[in-house]
Amino acid sequence: MTMANEVTRSAGEDRPAAEPRWLNRRESLAWRGYLTMADLLHSQVASDLLADSGLSWADYQVLVNLSESEGHRLRMTDLAARLDWSKSRVSHQFARMESRGLVTREECPSDARGAFAVLTDAGMDEIRRAAPGHVESVRRHFIDLLEPAELDQLAAVTMKVLEHLRTQPVGRSLPAGECPNAAAGEGSAPACGIEGSSEQAEGSHAGAEG
Which of 29, 42, 85, 165 has a CA that sits 20 to 30 A from residue 179's CA? Predict the structure, then answer.
């Protein structure tokens, strides 16, 4: 008896097992290519970041999220949700960064159980120092390899998948309408070194279209 013809018992009744929806060649190329690209791209950009600035990828992600938050602070639980990290991982990472003076912890006066992660002046200085080299790495290994239309298509695909994942348990903490670990739009301050000011963004678009 083949796998497709095997039966399973459900509620006391026999029924044919569902045939797996195996990926065809096109689908497999897209899926496996994405996985390989994402792994290699992350490793390369993280390696460049560490070599250029001495900051780890985890350091940078914490600094980015705090630098883009109002008052340069977030509840520890919100920081964990934005990073999709466990509470223990955030706690260990935060302790390492706190010992270097990049961040500090403040108790929440209205909630004895809560605490705020706060970016220090030294932490802001570090991300401003690291950002130029980081954005050049992102451009060299990713952005500048794609045409404007390809970037638009990729952004649309990304948001389509993210909107679906927000309906699933692992993605429900993502802010609506935003990519994780990214500022909302072109007008954001260049705190993380990825987005520029609105004037810079408009100039880059004009150059690409002209």
Answer: 29
